[in-house]
Amino acid sequence: MSEQPYHIPALLPQCLDALDIKPDGIYVDATYGGGGHSRAIMERLDAGQGGHLYSFDQDIDAVKRAGEDPRFTMVYSNFRFITNFMRYYDVDGVDGVLADLGVSFHHFDTPDRGFSFRADGPLDMRMNRSASRAASSLLADIDRDRLADILKLYGELSQARRMADAIVRAREGGRKLDTVGALIETVTPLIDPRKEKKELAQLFQALRIEVNDEMGALRELLEGALRVLRPGGRLAVITYHSLEDRMVKNFLKTGDITGKVDKDFFGRVNAPFKLLASKPIVPDDDEVARNPRSRSAKLRVGIKIG
Questions:
Q1: In which broad location class does this protein mainly occur, judging by the first location in its UniProt entry (predicted)?
Q2: Helix axes 196-211, 214-228, angle to 10 degrees
Q3: 100 is an annotated ligand-binding site residue
Q4: Architecture of 133-211 per CATH?
Q5: Is 35 marked within a binding site?
Q6: Residue 300 has pLDDT above 80, yes or no
Q7: What is the pLDDT of residues 125-152, one digit of tens each?
Q8: Verdict on whether the full-model pTM lies above 0.90
Q9: Which of 229, 221, 216 lies closest to 272 in space, CA to CA?
Q10: Known binder of ligand: residue 67?
Q11: In the chain, what are the domain boundaries?
């Protein structure tokens, strides 16, 4: 197993502490990425005692970087299928599930993946390039109102409607929005130069979330993790923006991503998890200095009840 030097795992010591790893435990890293979290978890497992790690990634680049180890199984799939694969591998329960929802440095720093506005390249944004529509294909025929909703909901853009209008007008005028540069040229006239980097980041985030159905996949991961965790097992999730953090927070408290509370006959809340801490764990100043991209990371942890 290799860890790429250009990828720094966020909140690594805190994740290991949160998972309370046992040498004979069964664990899932739902987001292999550069392998940093997986490698650290695996180092605490003992194959002789049955300790094992299952790591998921839907990006073939990440899968190819993973090595072999008797304590390790690489699963080439979206983490939304966690329940299916644990059943496939005859795993009757796991002791911990970790998910780092941040986009890998590799994706941001590879122009031909189209995740970043900082370098021109194909407007792709697919985590799995064989399984979903590219962002350019999405923009080629999406309805104006639907696009505005996506930009507002997933990007929290105040100018979502105006950006959607500009994109659709450009498309109807015959412009191909198939590169990062073409998209930026279309929307930058609407952006205050003082806010350009922030709003472009929000725009690209919104499109990436839609292209990869990130919110739908996260919901299925959370529900699947609850099913496969043993009583006392731990679910640890690192989020990077308010929408996904709200979903995780609600789920850990109520078992529902919207925060809907389920009560028993006596009016007691049927909480699926005991929270390890009431507030999210965040990186300290030293970590942010070493890894500026961890600045917005929030780690929430729940311990499955009975």
A1: cytoplasm
A2: 60
A3: yes
A4: Orthogonal Bundle (1.10)
A5: yes
A6: yes
A7: 999 988 779 999 999 999 999 999 999 9
A8: yes
A9: 229
A10: no
A11: 12-105+215-304, 133-211
